Amino acid sequence: MAITLREQYLEGFVSSHEMDCMAPQVAAAAAQLRQHTGAGSDFHGWLTLPRDYDKEELARIHAAAEKIRSDTDVLVVIGIGGSYLGARSAIELLRSPYYNALGKDGPAIYFAGCNLSGSYLDEILALCEGKRVSLNVISKSGTTTEPALAFRVLRGMMEQRYGKEAAGRIYCTTDRARGTLKSLADREGWQTFVIPDDVGGRYSVLTAVGLLPMAVAGIDIDAVLAGAQKAMQELANEDFSANACYRYAAIRNILLRRGKAIEIYASYEPRFTQMGEWLKQLYGESEGKDGKGLFPASVAFTTDLHSMGQFIQDGSRNLFETVIDFITPAADLTVEEDPENLDGLNFLSGMAMRQINRRAMQGTILAHTRGGVPNLVLEVPAINEEEYGYMVYFFMLACGISGYLLGVNPFDQPGVEAYKKNMFALLGKPGYEDLRQELLAKLGE
Amino acid sequence: MAITLREQYLEGFVSSHEMDCMAPQVAAAAAQLRQHTGAGSDFHGWLTLPRDYDKEELARIHAAAEKIRSDTDVLVVIGIGGSYLGARSAIELLRSPYYNALGKDGPAIYFAGCNLSGSYLDEILALCEGKRVSLNVISKSGTTTEPALAFRVLRGMMEQRYGKEAAGRIYCTTDRARGTLKSLADREGWQTFVIPDDVGGRYSVLTAVGLLPMAVAGIDIDAVLAGAQKAMQELANEDFSANACYRYAAIRNILLRRGKAIEIYASYEPRFTQMGEWLKQLYGESEGKDGKGLFPASVAFTTDLHSMGQFIQDGSRNLFETVIDFITPAADLTVEEDPENLDGLNFLSGMAMRQINRRAMQGTILAHTRGGVPNLVLEVPAINEEEYGYMVYFFMLACGISGYLLGVNPFDQPGVEAYKKNMFALLGKPGYEDLRQELLAKLGE
Fold first, then answer.
1. A273-287 and A85-94 are packed helices; what angle lies between their axes, rounded to 10 degrees?
2. Which pairing describes strands B4-6 and A319-328: parallel, antiparallel, or unpaired?
3. What is the CA angle A19-A22-A26, rounded to 5?
4. SS3 label, residue A334
């Protein structure tokens, strides 16, 4: 179990002396993180969490998940951003994007409170009809507009349907002691789980935020944490030449400085697609500030070779690819012989799809690098809980290091407030009257 | 019915004299398209298709869709790229991303042949178990690896299950006269629909490629075509000042020349998300060539304000946003009063979600433009068939014009062949022996 970084496809794009020059920079960035001297050090809790996790809380997560699995057909998870992307992407990767449709093991899981669409919420309500429902609302404060509004509506549905029994079906993942949601939960008798103070939203997937929905989906969360702990140990190696995570952080900064403004995360397993969204938040929100940052994008190959493939092969040369290569897929099929060979594909007969997919990957990497696109490969042995936990920790650690290399605070997100302030003003929230007048004038109202 | 382009948020980013300078360029690009003098003019068929569509074929599409709706629980649509993204995005936009799960009206529709993952295909087979299944295989040639492999597997399942009756459940959308799939269909007695010779994959959604799956999902395809025809008429206006489509094409080229390398399509309706993927193929594959092109990305707001929002607000200033603003959503909910106002959201009580979502959009546009990100707004009156048809034609026409402005052939995709050649060589396809040796050496095998 480990991620292996393949650097051979960087030949001609990143030279070894550039890497040498980065070594002391990386050491400095790692020190900022590990000695908590860097900006945002109040939010370094994720760094040791796989080891220091609250065992009692973990037991409560297991128990709650068992209860939900036994008395629930539909779990609605209410959250946005880091309270949404982690669990969803884990379930799609480790179970399936068709987890709900396959309906084999565990309740259906839907996500709400991750937008302001009335029609979306209306459909979530429809999907709950006639089903035994539980809610997991995830919000540090309880006042973030999107999840708070969805929770209003869904809590109403629950209380109408279950009366006082609703309390046993509402699970809150929130602040340990403060905030609206915590107070409400204590009063109503809802079970609560903790979002630690020193872990920001996009670094929170290995807390109850991600672990409770995962466990409900039948994912072995102990194995997830074990994988993360293994990564925590292995990636603490301060030898730059031997630390794949540090090298990845260095390479992406070198490529950015060389004018590669876009990093494309590419995988050949469709079930990784939603993980691409998780990565976009992790890196985009951590690094996209002060006018800086690699623009994160993601593709699902080979699907997107027939959409974004042309651009990557031959368009503007301002990008590079980071390929997540799963050596062993979740399942497989073998291509059978067609006696007539009408589709001309009998040269593939007897091959496993994984072999074909792998050759597609290798062929694509060679084509794209020849087209002028640097390719990094992160090799992951298999798609399972341990590897997932390892991978998550790897990407979070690389992100922290990378952000310090870039010269930003990888743990804040001041820019997210701008739209909220404007939205509150336009919606007439008390206290925003002056801004409201200014904005209405700009809108010509 | 029409798309309105709002240019007011471009103030400070694009000046009116720049637009004036573009007018003759746009006229030249439009002439290249309308007089078929531009590169790729063999593929201009989509330009008049909404008017010149084969009425007899349309009737056959209706009839096939009715049959499928009456005798099928699961339709598997087999295709990749333009044979996949159009139908899927239309169904998600016009019905719902939860169309299958809601299960109210029409067969479930799954997509296959759009990747090389054995585990994906294995799950599609599982989803067919115990259901009445039909297939719609979409491929011009019938030899594209991904759909051909999936069709081998799924056809085997169908023949095993239905014997000779399988023929009545297989529908092929393919070349009018030539190719492996057409020959096979004629021999096996499968019904066929036509991919016109002069319409490339990414411009094909208004042919049987997109229309048959849409009709199976209960979408009124006559209304879709009527909307497209309306766009065809209205957007033929050669007055640059009055043609929103031409102006959009001009603005995105101006912004590219000003160093905005990334265009982000943004919508506040989650059901538009998959349309973002369709747009990425349309623009990425049309313009990403010869080292040129805007990198297309997409976001689903407000979801992604909590992931990509920070970057857009405050990261590298190399991007702009094109907002698709649906004035009327598909459905709505009203926020109810909470007597205790524990979440502090009572200032929203009595408001429709659409009003809140709209204020979020306006607030975001004002925040992002203040952050240095040009915003274009394309206002669409509603989410329905006519508007969808109009919108599709609008984006295809803008893409053709924009590609000619950029100085590329917007109708070819030579770069897509590079990975295929390498993949064939690595998989041992006869005729690729020399390349195989070269590539294996590069891989160190």
1. 150
2. unpaired
3. 125
4. strand
Distance CA A210, CA A202 (A): 11
Residues A413 and B334: beta-carbon distance below 8 Å: no
Residue closest to A261 by CA, chosen among B295, B266, B322: B295
CB burial readout A77-102, b (16+ within 10 A) else e: bbbbbbbbbbbbbbbbbbbbbbbbbe
Out of B118, B297, B351, closest to residue A297 by CB:
B297
Q: Has residue B156 got a pLDDT over 90? A: yes
Listed in sequence order, the residues at least 6 apart from B444 whose beta carbon sits closer than 8 Å to its beta carbon are A8
Q: In angstroms, how far is the first alpha carbon of chain A from the final one?
A: 59
Query: Token match 């027939």: residue?
Result: A306
B435 touches chain A (CB under 8 A): no
Residue B1 has pLDDT above 80, yes or no: no
What is the mean predicted confidence (pLDDT) over B394-420? 97
Give the chain B residue nearest A260 (alpha carbons). Answer: B261
pLDDT digits (tens, 9 = 90+) for B23-82: 999 999 999 999 999 999 999 999 999 999 999 999 999 999 999 999 999 999 999 999
Tokens, residue A34: 């590990």
Please give the single-letter amino acid code of residue B237: N
Cβ atoms within 10 Å of B282's Cβ, excluding its own: 24
Residues of B with CB below 8 A from A357's CB? 115-118
Tell me the C-alpha distance between A93 and A224, whole Å: 13
- Asked if B62 is an active-site residue, the reply is no
For residues A265 and A281, give the distance between their C-alpha atoms in angstroms, rounded to a whole number: 12
The pairing of beta strand A375-382 with beta strand A295-300: unpaired
Give the number of beta-carbon pairs within 8 Å between A and B.
429
Catalytic position from the list B11, B165, B238, B420:
B420
- Non-local (6+) Cβ contacts of B59 within 8 A are none
Burial letters B196-210, b for 16+ CB under 10 A, else e: bebbbbbbbbbbbbb
What end-to-end distance do the CA atoms of chain B give, in Å? Answer: 59
Return the number of other C-beta atoms located less than 10 Å from residue B60's C-beta.
Answer: 17
**Does residue A285 carry a catalytic annotation?**
yes
Quick one: DSSP state of residue A337? P
Sign of the CA dihedral with A106 first, then A111, A112, and A113 last: positive
Does the pLDDT at position B208 exceed 80? yes
CB A303 within 8 A of CB B80: yes
Residue A342, pLDDT above cutoff 90: no
Token pair recorded at residue A430: 């008390």
Q: Show the DSSP H helices in A54-135 as ranges.
A: 55-71, 85-94, 99-102, 118-128
Instruction: Give the whole-angstrom CA distance, residue A407 versus residue A428.
Output: 38
Are B127 and A345 an interchain contact pair (Cβ–Cβ within 8 Å)? Answer: no
The owner of tokens 């989410």 is: B383
Of the pLDDT bands very low, low, confident and very high (cuts 50, 70, 90), residue A232 is very high
Task: Please name the residue ranges forming H helices in B129-272.
Answer: 145-162, 180-188, 208-216, 221-234, 244-257
- B chain contacts of residue A160, beta-carbon cutoff 8 Å: none
Interface of A with B in 61-80 (CB under 8 A): 80
State whether B315 and A439 contact (CB < 8 Å). no
Which amino acid belongs to residue B395? F
**Rg of chain A on CA atoms, in Å:** 23
Q: Which of A285, A287, A386, A387 is catalytic?
A: A285
Which pair of tokens denotes residue A270?
Answer: 């469709």
- Contact with chain B for residue A203, Cβ under 8 A: no
The answer to whether the Cβ–Cβ distance between B316 and A116 falls below 8 Å is: no
Q: pTM of the entire structure?
A: 0.97
* Cβ atoms < 10 Å from Cβ of B219: 24
Residues of chain A in contact with residue B330, where contact means CB-CB under 8 angstroms, are 119
Q: Evaluate whether ipTM surpasses 0.90.
A: yes
**Selected catalytic residue, list B104, B164, B306, B442:** B306
Verify whether the Cβ–Cβ distance B96 to A293 is below 8 Å.
no
